[in-house]
Amino acid sequence: VPDRLIQALEAAVGERHVLTDAAMTSGYDVDWTGRFRGRSRAVVRPRDLEQVAAVVGACREAGVAVVPQGGNTGLVGGSVPLAGEVVLSLRRLDWLDPVDALACQVTAGAGTSLAALQRHVDASGLAFGVDLGARDSATVGGMAATNAGGLRLLRYGAMRAQVVGVEAVLSDGTVIRHLGGLTKDNTGYDLAGLLCGSEGTLAVITALRLRLVPRYDERVVALLSFSGVRAALDAVAVLRTTLAALEAAELFFEDGLALVCDQLGLRRPFARAYPVYLLVECADRVDPMPLLAAAVEQLAAEDVAVAADGPRRAELWRYREAHTEAINALGPPVKLDVTLPGAALEAFVGEVREVLRTVCPEGRCYLFGHAADGNLHVNVAGAPAEATEVEDVVLNLVASMGGSISAEHGIGTAKRGWLHLNRSKEEIALFATIKRALDPDGILNPNVLLP
Ligand SMILES: Cc1cc2nc3c(=O)[nH]c(=O)nc-3n(C[C@H](O)[C@H](O)[C@H](O)COP(=O)(O)OP(=O)(O)OC[C@H]3O[C@@H](n4cnc5c(N)ncnc54)[C@H](O)[C@@H]3O)c2cc1C
């Protein structure tokens, strides 16, 4: 490490917040899945906007690349240093302004965890539209940078739909700030929208102005079982058209449920097993149970479990949310997150298992996801870590069926070799032009997103 850089970083944030010792940096150097591991030159933990700008300036001067990092829960290897970069941890930027109840908005520091944001806005009778399993660690800055989707996308949209304004530091230390919170504001390029999904390659997000939604306390969760994928998707279509209060529709399969019950010692939800399960949640100001019950009557569900009280609702959610941890317990899986057009989803479920058997007969494939968005998480346990055939066959199959190789996790380092499956030469060239305009020296997360 050039000493001058470390000295400059220490001058910017204080000695205590520049970590270089491997024992201190190890948690920042490896991703949540354990699949992506590097070694940072240093981990720097600024406290505020000025310190972020000073850190970026010092790294640019030294010609050393920076990896912005929030909660480090990203699943595509975008938040860890794989080539000796400096990790810029935003977690100390965890402040929250008072809720603006008139505008239904709040301004938050980029390092605020989703759970802290949820607690903060709850007291005002409001809620945040994006929710995901990593809520205790994922930060709003990281969620914007990945344009996170999550469990309620069908009702409220992804992160980009929640971001009203942004404050960010550019690679030359310039600060852009547009946090006024005007919901109607057609004054040129949508910079906040551009930074959503940019995965730390265009700017470091330091604060966000966020849209809030009403808090609905009357909730019902139902777990439905089906004889096949088609029947479950038909049910989703009925529920979407008849239930305005529908907030989530999550799909999983018998092999995943069996693994979850086994790993976590949970009782099975039904007396017998079914091929496909759908977990739905409705939320409203008035009890959504009668409407949900009437809708369920129209469905071809084999078996139904319904929960209205908090603990029982959480129990039903556990069958879906625990998939990630149960699969991880088998060793780091290959994790792919894809979208299929609704009409192709059923065929994909059959074909993906077949193509995987040909390239990785020893792998165990688990599928689960957000049914209404056509978003499936394809997890392959037991695949050799270095083999890329698994990614290759799955992502090519997805593209050939008109799907997206990344539904909500982003491209990161994991998928950049396959970006061409979804984006044309011309689009990728335009991406590179935008990158050069904002980051001419290529110091912001240079190993992520662009091929
Ligand atoms: C159990 C579990 C469940 C999950 N469920 C979902 C889900 O349902 N939907 C979903 O979309 N994702 C999900 N994820 C993935 C992950 O939580 C999201 O991608 C989340 O948005 C990452 O936030 P983070 O703060 O951890 O970002 P990190 O992992 O730290 O970083 C992610 C990317 O954003 C960049 N970045 C981080 N902070 C900033 C910043 N302030 N400025 C600029 N760039 C930045 C990083 O460089 C990196 O490229 C899940 C993950 C886990 C572990």
Describe the protein's architecture and organization.
With 451 residues, this protein is of the alpha+beta class. Helix content is 34%, strand content 20%. A 7-stranded antiparallel sheet has the order 14-11-13-12-16-17-15, sandwiched between helices. Strands 1-2-4-3 form a 4-stranded mixed sheet, sandwiched between helices. Strands 5-9-7-8 form a 4-stranded antiparallel sheet. The structure holds flavin-adenine dinucleotide. The site of flavin-adenine dinucleotide has 38 residues, from strand 3, helix 5 and strand 9. Flavin-adenine dinucleotide (FAD) binds next to strand 3, helix 5 and strand 9.
End-to-end Cα distance, whole Å, is 27 Å
Strand segment count: 17
Strand content: 15-25%
Described by its quaternary structure, the protein is: single chain
Biggest sheet details: 7 strands, antiparallel
Nearest-integer average pLDDT: 96
Which kinds of small molecule does this entry bind, naming each only once? flavin-adenine dinucleotide
- Global geometry: globular
Report low-confidence residues grouped into runs of 5 or more.
none
Helix percentage range? 25-40%
The total of helices stands at 15
Main sheet: strand order: 14-11-13-12-16-17-15
Backbone structural class: alpha+beta
What Rg do the Cα atoms give?
A: 22 Å
What's the structural blueprint in terms of helices and strands?
Layout (H helix, E strand, L loop, with lengths): L2 H11 L4 E2 L2 H8 L12 E3 L4 H14 L3 E4 L16 E4 L15 E5 L4 H9 L3 E2 L12 H7 L6 H4 L6 E7 L5 E4 L12 H5 L8 E8 L1 E2 L3 E9 L2 H14 L3 E8 H11 L11 E9 L4 H9 L5 E5 L2 H12 L1 H6 L5 E6 L2 H18 L4 E7 L4 E7 L7 H12 L24 H14 L13
Helix pairs in contact: 1-3, 8-10, 13-14
The structure holds flavin-adenine dinucleotide.
The site of flavin-adenine dinucleotide has 38 residues, from strand 3, helix 5 and strand 9.
